[in-house]
Amino acid sequence: MAVGKSIVLLCLCLAVALLEIGNGGVAARKLDKQSLGFYELRRGEFSMVVTNWGATILAVRVPDKNGHIDDVVLGYKDIGSYVNDTTYFGALVGRVANRIAGGRFTIKDRAYHTYRNDGNNTLHGGHRGFNQVFWSVRERVTGDFPHITFSYRSYDGEQGFPGNLDVLVTYKIDGDLSYSVTMYARPLDKPTPVNLAQHTYWNLRGHGSGHDVLGHAVQILASAVTPVAAGGGLIPTGAVAPVAGTPFDFRRPAAPGARIAEVEGGYDINYVLDGETDGQGVRKAAVVSEAESGRVLELWANQPGLQFYTGNFLKGDVGKGGAVYAKHAGLCLETQDFPDAVHEPGFPKEVYRPGQVYKHYMLYKFSIKK
Fold it and tell me: Which residues of this protein are catalytic (predicted)?
């Protein structure tokens, strides 16, 4: 395993001189019998760049109220920096996003032990989760509504998880200022927990603006959170607690900086979404706006939870164009199943069996407020 990982790292480092993120278009080279590529999806002035390394979003470019186009997601300047990355910039994380307490769980009286990469816990699928593997390009379509589909087969025992699992993700530009992410997973031979998430860091002022996100206006359509146990680890207690009267109340738009000092470590907690759903189970989950640029982002999704994270562990990471990402330089809105659901019978189910299909849909809608 260590040898294989070293080969991938070497190949990616060699590619850095040839491939640099953010140039648009497509670039690819053969790496360890895999093809590494950058793929731009564009509709007018609105565009995004993705790669099949970790099915990662590298850039999202959106005009502001003055017509100036900025990249509003944090990320590294070259693909080599994503190898062994622990910030998860733009990554698709899994097999199980968020945390599994103790790195163990039981299905049908059989215990499974997953790789513990966050103290005593498993975070985002282990040290080599879905963000640290090559995905195959299943389909790429250009035109007015371009999209690309990546696929990955997670093998039985990968990072300790049971069974072979087929996974698909499609990134699609759906309108002039909107794109969707659709993820499917299908267990082939054993029951397994599945909880995929998209881990983009947003800064609507622009990733390289030098401004943090504590002044953004954030609305989260949730009246409760899943509180975490004292002592660190960010493992839910199993309870569901109302946000009313607490610094976690974002039912109306508010700046995270207004009460972040009351939250130990900063915001990093799962919200229980309770907005009205459409016929497909999709609801508005969150709205973020930034006054100086006029950019507004709406997030719609079909998952029960949303992890709101204010980039508390960023510490001067160097990103695209030499931008330096200090603490709170970006925020994450990760729709998901609830953290540690494998241990909490009162949480929505996370274990899928052969014949069942996991689906996670997200729609990101931008608008400009003059």
Answer: 199 (proton donor), 334 (proton acceptor)
